[in-house]
Amino acid sequence: MFESLLIANRGEIARRIIKTANKLGIRTVAVHSEADADLPYVKEADESVHIGPADPALSYRNVDAILTAAEQTGAAAIHPGYGFGSENPDFARAVTAAGLIWVGPGPDAIAAMGDKINARNIMAAAGVPVAPGTGEPVADAEAATARAAEIGYPVMVKAAAGGGGMGMAVADDAEALPKVLAQIQGVAERLFGSGDVLIERFYPRVRHIEVQILGLADGRVLTLGERECSVQRRNQKLVEETPSPALDPELRARFLDAARRAGEAVSYQNAGTVEFLLDADTRDFFFLEMNTRLQVEHPITETVYGVDLVAAQLKVAAGEDPKINDPAPAGHAIEFRVNAEDPKRFLPGPGVITEWTEPQGRGVRVDSGYARGNTVPRFYDSLMAKLIVSGPDRATAIERARAALSEFAIAGPKQNLPFFLELLDNEEFTGGTYDTGIVGRMR
């Protein structure tokens, strides 16, 4: 195991990684922008380095600044967390070229899965189910209309290089398609530097289900169950749970087998997640994308499977066997993303935290990035903390969640805790029959 680790991230995930590194006796180095100098993770690391102004392009995405910080502090490895540079193959290559250890999959796997068209074609060749769609970029409105007629409306137009729920929109018919195509091509070029888009069949009633994988140095790809991620706003997740209330043992086995095939198709090593859409009516499921990093919602898998995924990441990166061999799940866990946003329209509301009281109790875990007196800045994702609640069964987890959400006190920035309490009174959610449209129906 390497002796020192630089965390190229911020907030709760940096704090989460530091916690496990401390347990393993690894010296930690935090990097921070000007806006984050007073956050808890900066103080909890063994050493910290200021790497630039608040603008993430000049700090957390600044590869040269991060590598300079690693050289100055003698860090032997870099953990990218999630977001920022975590799925940038050039960043991974630069880290290894500098003689450092990259805590994540190899750059070739990152690059292969970073392009949705390429990823879709690789998965189809490996026998992983994919939705009807295009296997090459759509050139123009004429080509898009012809292919959409073959696929069948409605269709989803997606940025090939997109991620995080961004760069996608639905076209209901041939009349709407050219406008949607031009819109997404523009968004794709602006956000991702590539105007390439693909078209897939859109399924109005789906559930978003993902599988945690862990690729080992010996070539094996382990699966650690699924996570239900269907509570979303603007295609971005708000609540996740495991196990999914939608899956029976036979369907779960098919999901896990498909995820294992996906990992093996790109010789995957380290932690990753294979995302699928499940048609709520036909029970067919399709590959959506592979996230070549640690997911925000990884704690619910840790809770139910009794593993430390960050420790597993570090051990695999160091060439060690994490000694995880298909552990059996126990109980149920739900994660709530506590964001600095209003609970009705989900618009960001950053600000100074004047009150911060975390809930406690049996089955309650809080992974937070802030404390009272900190400022939630406007420059980054609005995530402040993750509330993870577990129990021996789903009903107990929901009941404990009600109590924990009621005890969580935040003042200053806007926060979405009231939405979660509303969700726990929703019959679709409590009955486990919900799909990705649940938030829209609640609003």
Automatic annotation (TrEMBL):
<dbReference type="InterPro" id="IPR016185">
    <property type="entry name" value="PreATP-grasp_dom_sf"/>
</dbReference>
<dbReference type="Pfam" id="PF00289">
    <property type="entry name" value="Biotin_carb_N"/>
</dbReference>
<feature type="domain" description="Biotin carboxylation">
    <location>
        <begin position="1"/>
        <end position="443"/>
    </location>
</feature>
<dbReference type="Pfam" id="PF02786">
    <property type="entry name" value="CPSase_L_D2"/>
</dbReference>
<keyword id="KW-0067">ATP-binding</keyword>
<dbReference type="InterPro" id="IPR005482">
    <property type="entry name" value="Biotin_COase_C"/>
</dbReference>
<keyword id="KW-0547">Nucleotide-binding</keyword>
<keyword id="KW-0436">Ligase</keyword>
<feature type="domain" description="ATP-grasp">
    <location>
        <begin position="120"/>
        <end position="318"/>
    </location>
</feature>
<dbReference type="GO" id="GO:0046872">
    <property type="term" value="F:metal ion binding"/>
</dbReference>
<dbReference type="InterPro" id="IPR005479">
    <property type="entry name" value="CPAse_ATP-bd"/>
</dbReference>
<dbReference type="InterPro" id="IPR050856">
    <property type="entry name" value="Biotin_carboxylase_complex"/>
</dbReference>
<dbReference type="GO" id="GO:0005524">
    <property type="term" value="F:ATP binding"/>
</dbReference>
<protein>
    <recommendedName>
        <fullName>biotin carboxylase</fullName>
        <ecNumber>6.3.4.14</ecNumber>
    </recommendedName>
</protein>
<dbReference type="InterPro" id="IPR011054">
    <property type="entry name" value="Rudment_hybrid_motif"/>
</dbReference>
<keyword id="KW-0092">Biotin</keyword>
<dbReference type="InterPro" id="IPR011761">
    <property type="entry name" value="ATP-grasp"/>
</dbReference>
<dbReference type="InterPro" id="IPR005481">
    <property type="entry name" value="BC-like_N"/>
</dbReference>
<dbReference type="InterPro" id="IPR011764">
    <property type="entry name" value="Biotin_carboxylation_dom"/>
</dbReference>
<dbReference type="GO" id="GO:0004075">
    <property type="term" value="F:biotin carboxylase activity"/>
</dbReference>
<dbReference type="Pfam" id="PF02785">
    <property type="entry name" value="Biotin_carb_C"/>
</dbReference>
